[in-house]
Write a structure and sequence with these properties.
The structure is a single chain. The chain is built from 5 helices and 2 strands; from the N terminus they run βααβααα. It has 139 residues and is mostly helical. It has a two-stranded antiparallel sheet. The protein starts with 12 loop residues before the first strand and ends with a helix.
């Protein structure tokens, strides 16, 4: 290793949990390669993301799971943003494109140093609990 060269820093990542329907949507749009791949600054295809999606679908099917986590890089988030239409629907006809995009946007924000995404859905809050949280956030 060249001592004058700085050590490579690991890529920042964020985790996002996708349902099996969302994973199937990603599988249908995230390709492993794109035409003229070398001409893109961030190509709209990614072999690593494609592999993760495929492995997650297999895991869901084999273990009877209904969701799986993907570890996303900033570039993965851009690929999702480019490839997933907001109006995309699951095979059942339910609109899920916006959900997938929102998960990607949250991961992107977390990678860029913003709020960390949570992997658990919060419990429903009572009116009083909601008011208390709002007071806490406002300072």
């Amino acid at each position: 290793m060249d001592s004058n060269r700085p050590a490579a820093t690991p890529a920042k990542t964020a985790t996002a949990i996708f349902t099996d329907e969302e994973l199937w949507l990603l599988q249908s749009v995230i390709r492993h390669e794109a035409a003229q791949h070398d001409q893109w600054r961030v190509p709209p295809a990614d072999m690593g993301l494609n592999d993760q999606v495929a492995e997650s679908i297999l895991r869901c099917e084999e273990l009877g799971l209904c969701e799986a986590a993907l570890i996303l890089t900033y570039e993965d988030c851009l690929v999702i943003d480019y490839c997933v239409p907001q109006s995309a629907k699951a095979a059942s006809g339910v609109a899920i494109g916006k959900q997938v995009l929102m998960k990607s946007f949250r991961a992107r924000r977390a990678i860029q140093g913003g709020d960390l995404i949570t992997t658990e859905e919060p419990a429903s809050l009572s009116g009083e609990e909601l008011q208390e949280r709002l007071r806490q956030q406002r300072g």
